[in-house]
Amino acid sequence: MNVATMLGAPGEALRQPQQQWAAAVTAVLREAFGYHFERNAFFRAQCDADGVTPADVSTRADLPKIPMLPVSMFKRPDAHMLLTAPLTDIELEIRSTGTGGVPSVARRDTTTVDRAVVGITSSYRDFFALSKGAGLFLCPSTAEAPEMGMVKVFNMLNGVFDDHVYLVRDYAFDADEALRYLRSREGEMTRHIIGPPFLVNRFLRFLELEDIELKLDPESMVITLGGWKRYTGESISRPEFDAKLQRYLGVGAGRIRDMYGMIESNMLAIECEHHRKHVPPWCYVSIRDVDDPSVELTPGRTGGIAVLDALNTAYPGFLLSDDIGEVDESGCPCGRTGQTVSFRRRRQGAELGCCAVSIEKFLDSQEIVAECAVPAPAGGR
User: In the record, which residues are listed under signal peptide (predicted)?
Assistant: First the structure.
């Protein structure tokens, strides 16, 4: 199965027998390795230093031999040296700024953008089966944040809805407006909520403080992306989050889906109804020993998350992230095969670096979270 087949039918590619999956992902990554090996002088020098060539990658066990780029390199002012494609072919720049304020810049050429758009939208269809309804986006629009990776990924969902609205404007969020929108579509269309966990959680806190229980629809979904840890270090509890969605919006656990990705990669691991995040068939997640990243750990062990991405032609998509987690290659009740990935935490010393963190930090710095304040009694202070 080649990349074009995977992109056109990710549902089928994600349901291959495990042995066929291993052969297919090895083949597309070996091809991608060869592409950058021949065209990228910086990457070729790294390969020469490691003494590895595409001929050395013939089985899935050989994939850890492919040299990795630490994601910290995308924060360098000379990050253009990572490019395989010429700067004149770059169509899109995606940025993510963490708590340190230094942006990661990931550039995509036209081929990479084409592949990513097809792959992500077809994956959405396979996992969510959405084709209508109303989408409440608790994030900025792409017009307001055109370079923000999380917003780009969310924006690719809005085309399936009959109606949608973005309710973070000028980095302000009005929970009353969100409530009005959901009520206005009651009985007309299925209502869905899309946004980073912290903003969905703010809306839930508003409903909790106001003691409002608004039941959505049997087919309603809540789709999140952006991490579960706030810039303050406080974590959002997933079980509590799901319980509040059930209580205040009537959304069952099987309709709550989180996603995991990073702006430097075209991997978007989408959660199935069993809350397992499935690695797309054109990617391979390799868990590395934290003290020695050259060592790959067996499935189930916790270590550094490395992502090998076959879609990227702009630069080598073989990335060592600052994230810690595990992969699982056991069968999933949903019927999909391959790998599932679990994110645990950031590597010690690494800053929080997702778009959601930047949005939340700005919201709090501007003190525009009045929706979470307890109103003063009438006539009092």
Answer: none
